[in-house]
Amino acid sequence: MHIVVLAKAVPNTAGDERLDPSFRLDRAWVDPIINPNDEHALEVALRLAETMPGVETTMLTMGPAGSWTGLSKAIAAGVGKAVLVSDDALENACALSTARVLAAALGTMDADLVIAGLDSSDGRAGVIAPAVATLLGLPFISHASELTVRDGTVEVKRLRDDGHERLEVALPALVTVTQAVGEFRYPTLRGIMAARSRTPQALGLADLGLSPDLVGGASATTAVVDVAPASERPPTRVLTGDPATVARDVVDFLAERRFIA
Q1: What is the DSSP letter of 19?
Q2: Regarding the domain delimited by 2-219, which CATH topology (the fold level of the hierarchy) does it fall under?
Q3: pTM for this predicted structure
Q4: Backbone Cα Rg of the chain
Q5: Which H or E run includes 206?
Q6: Where are the alpha helices (DSSP H) in 92-188?
C-alpha cells in the first residue's frame, strides 16, 4: 500500500512575516517549516505504516528548492520518501495551478491513499486537496478526526458542527484530517542525522508533461492587487465584582445591542 501526504513549506508561524513588492509573503524573510496542519496528516501516515504491513509513505510538495530545509523534518520523523515539484515558472502560481501540478505528480505515483491537512497557514483557502481529488476523480472526505484502512477501503470519523459521522469509501481516495487525529511526533536524533544526507526526488514541469502556459505564474487566475491593515478592535470592557451583578451587566449589554430580547 502506498500512502502519499500532500505537504507544503510555509513561513515559520512564530516568525515576523512581511510582504514583498507584489503583496505576497516574502518567503526568503522567514525560515520555512512544514505547514502545521500537514503535520497531522504526516502523523496519520506514519501510524498506518507502523500498524499495517507493506506500507510505503511519500511526502509530495510543490515549492522552490529552498523550501526543502523546512520539510526535511518529515524524513527525520520516518517518512520514507519525498518528492518536490519545483520550477521557476511556478512562481506566483495560483491555487488552480497548484492543484493541477500536484494532481499530475500524483498521477505518476500509483497512490492508494492521499492524506492532507485542511488548509495552509499562509493561505487558509483549503481548496487544494478537494481540487486535486476532483481533477483525479478520487473519492474525497474532509475533516477526519479518525481514519482506519482495511480491505481496500478507508473509514473516516468526520467532524460536523453538530457531532460526527462515519463514512467509508473505496481506495484510492483522498482524505483531509483535523488536529484531532493527533500531534506530529518528534524526530529521533538518529532520524535527524539520517535526514541530513537525504534529498527529495526533484521534478519539474517538463517531467510532468505540463506547460508553463497552463500552470505557470504568468497564467494565474488570481492576483493580489492591494493590501490594507485590519481595522483595530474596539476597546474591551472587563466586568469584575459580585457574580450576580456581573451577570446582570452582561444581560444588559447584550440586550442593548439587541443580541437578546
Answers
A1: B
A2: Rossmann fold (3.40.50)
A3: 0.85
A4: 22
A5: helix 205-208
A6: 95-106, 128-136
